[in-house]
Backbone:
């Protein structure tokens, strides 16, 4: 069965510090990995997906199939990055896709 | 353009009552998903619609839960004989097609007393 693990419930850093939100997955196949973000009082929204290989708001994530990881990184955290971050994977082999989410990591960036 | 909308935004009900939650997807999106966000369980998939049919109902937690979609647009999630463990935020998402990015609604917060 597919599974996404985010080991940290809370990550607290100071503004300007580097950030790494960890995500590990288990899946027998070739998954597609995503990071979703939920800012306070806002809806869940896509931050980035691994196939796009792009940087959004300074965040990047690299899929490491050997370590089955998809960690989210940002070199210099900003206060506005404070939010709940969810790693997710989708199984598209069955002709449709549903998201399996990790339990999320709350990022708090202090001034 | 308008995003995914859900109603009501909050629902408080008594144990044993039935509730209906509504989702209006983005116009033209053929794929529609329901998820549940609860403390301790995180985000869980409930059901997926492609058009009006539901090829995947595997996430529905019990037979008290059902969902339908009409006209390839609006969907309703019905919970019969609600229990306290049904308390959660119910999220709806839609995408242009099954392999595309899913766009989420604001959710309905259900509280069962």
Residues:
């Amino acid at each position: 069965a597919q599974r996404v693990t985010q080991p940290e419930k809370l990550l607290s850093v100071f503004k300007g510090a580097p950030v790494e939100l960890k995500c590990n997955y288990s899946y027998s196949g070739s998954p597609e990995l995503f990071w979703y973000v939920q800012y306070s009082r806002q809806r869940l929204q896509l931050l980035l997906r691994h196939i796009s290989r792009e940087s959004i708001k300074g965040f990047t994530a690299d899929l490491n199939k050997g370590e089955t990881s998809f960690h989210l990184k940002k070199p210099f955290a900003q206060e506005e990055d404070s939010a709940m971050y969810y790693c997710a994977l989708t199984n598209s082999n069955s002709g449709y896709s549903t998201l399996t989410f990790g339990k999320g990591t709350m990022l708090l960036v202090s001034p | 353009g308008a995003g995914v909308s859900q109603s009501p935004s909050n629902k408080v009900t008594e144990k044993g009552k039935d509730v209906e939650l509504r989702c209006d997807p983005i116009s033209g999106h053929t794929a529609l998903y329901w998820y549940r966000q609860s403390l301790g369980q995180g985000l869980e998939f409930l059901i997926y619609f492609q058009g009006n049919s539901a090829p995947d109902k595997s996430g529905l937690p019990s037979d008290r839960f059902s969902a339908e979609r009409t006209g390839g647009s609006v969907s309703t999630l019905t919970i019969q004989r609600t229990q306290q463990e049904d308390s959660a935020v119910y999220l709806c998402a839609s995408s242009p097609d099954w392999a595309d990015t899913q766009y989420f609604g604001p959710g309905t917060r259900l509280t069962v007393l």
About this structure: Chain B has no helices and eleven strands.
